[in-house]
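Lab notebook, page 48
Experiment: co-folding of the full assembly
Goal: obtain a model of how the components sit together before planning crosslinking
Operator: M.T.
Materials (sequences as entered):
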Amino acid sequence: MKSKRIRAGAAAMSGLLLLGACGEGGPGGSGGDFTNGKLVLAVLNDQSGIYKDASGPNTVKAVKMAVADYKKKYGDKAVVDDIEVTSTDHQNKPDIANTKAQELYERGGADVILDVPTSSAALAVANQAKKHKKMFIDVSAATTELTGAQCNKYTLQWAYNTYMLANGTGTTVTGNGDKNWHIIYPDYQFGQDMTKSFTEAIAKAGGTVQGTIPTPFPNDNFATFLTKAGSTNPDVIGTMQAGGDLINVVKQFNESGLKEKGIDLAVGLMLITDIHSLGVDQFAGTMFTDAWYWNMDAESRAWADRFRDETGTRPTFEHAGNYSAALQYLEAVQEAGTDDADAVVGKLEGKKINDVFLRNGEVRAKDHLVIHDAYLARVKEPSQVKEDWDYEEIVTTIPAAKAFAPVEASTCSM
Amino acid sequence: MNAVLQYAVQGLAAGSFYALAALGLAIIFGVLGVVNFAHGAFYMLGAVTTAVLLDTLDLTLWWSLLVVPVLMFVFGVVVERSLVRWLLRLDPLYNFLLTFGLTLVLVELVKQRYGVSGLPYKPPGALQGRVDLAGVVLPRYQLFVFLFSVAVCVLVWLVMTRTRVGMIVRASTEKPELARALGINVGRWVTPVFGFGVALAGLAGVLAAPFRAITADMGNNFAIILFAVVVIGGLGSIVGAVVAGFMVGLVEAFGQAYAPTFAQILIFVLMGLIILVRPAGLFGRKEATA
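Observation: model returned without errors.
Model output:
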């Protein structure tokens, strides 16, 4: 036992010596405060599956844009010169996400893991972040658990969560007179979270949920689920499906005749890529909650133009969210002068932020949820579309304090 | 009652996709002895081609129903000539692996070219809206899908039973040695039969375009259910594939209506039960599975 400890100590010492040597030779001698003399931002997301277009490889480009902007801003004064952006595919599987996160923290030298769509995968990564005392900034996963019961000091939720989506859409649609809901949802973590959040929001707004139907995931045939939901004559059917499943639902809803019966369709989570792939005519008039829209003001548009130059396409809110998360992480590292996660988190906690993605943003110290303005959007009519990707009209801005659950309600204890 | 009829039509519409595609799978297995794992990918290609044709050449669904199966037939012939043929003499497992690999390649190529979010498709106006049949309101498109695929299945059945070509194909399926002994050149029919099976999968894809998300992954889940269909019907049985296709569609619809959580599992429960009672499937003969 004792000898083991001595050996470990010796190994650590020689490691330190090596590091010291590296630091001396490193650029600007700044390596001393950085493990391996460099900063590693690891994007862990879906590089080939259903969420590839929503974030995927273009998120890596967005993060690289943030690194370039950081270097441009600080130049010689930057506390670290060597910044690496890596990209790993987790295939939306929690077990793969878990192993990859462990590898990235232990052997990949990752200082922060970014993005991680699919709630179950993100929860696995959060667990690894806690274990390794390294940072994880979630952008694409929406479960409130990340900043709720399963929160930890090293995990931040940057862009949105199921509460934000449900509160925005559920409250507004109910308020507009669609009081009776029937919800269909994919039977896994995200769908269950969404249904719970929507049910609460609808009840608070004075509506009722007549019934909920769990569906397989993935699934291409929703015809009977929709008929079943429509048979109770609700005012609105809420769908919590995402990606390709959502497109199946919308196509089959439009075809089912429920619309003519006066039943509306409310969508829980929609990304601009969904509208693009199905065609604006099929979605026209649909209301949904968005975390950001590329054409919502001049600042966003200017960034979206840069993004288009890099990628050839317009950004989703997840792309912008990852850019913002990477940029603000780098700012915090600059302030802390080290990549030590405790120091960086300390700089971020409670920080008020305004950037291209976050408006009236604040990193809540208690649960590490990043609150910011959210938007209720409506899909444009085909006749209103003036250019490619011009699909959304922002109906109202939901102020940050109202968009997310109040901090008092948080079940997080770190 | 109204609701039950509605579920039934929805089930038959969903079953139409399975029936058409499974028919192709059964014919290919029958004549070539190849378990074509790429059938889901061919279905996907049919739908993707339909969307691309509308986007680039303004070809409506009606044209696609004619053009896409022809294109898919040609594609099937190329695949058979260039790939499948070389492995026919070996253990069937080799072609199973080949077509599995082909699926991965085709899916990735479509992802590279068209992304993963899917392609837009606008269905023809004539097929939108509802039909009122004695108080039962049915979506026009689902009714069309059902009637169209029944017509195709009947046509294929007539060709198989009433024409010389059909008899040769059936003879090659059921007793290849005997057919050869009688001077029939079985080998000559292998390529067109493979192409025809692929065309049927493509046709199912065309029908799916207005109704389902057109993505590179759309065939993955579909293929799994398709194999359940073929096992239920009896491997290589043409009638079995069609009957089982509609049956699985109905099980899916009624499962969705009355036991949503189990909708997909029910199909495999059905498969398990049928294998227990009739190991060769509903219409399979012992030889077919050997």
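Interpretation: Chain B has a mean pLDDT of 89.
Next step: discuss with group before ordering constructs.
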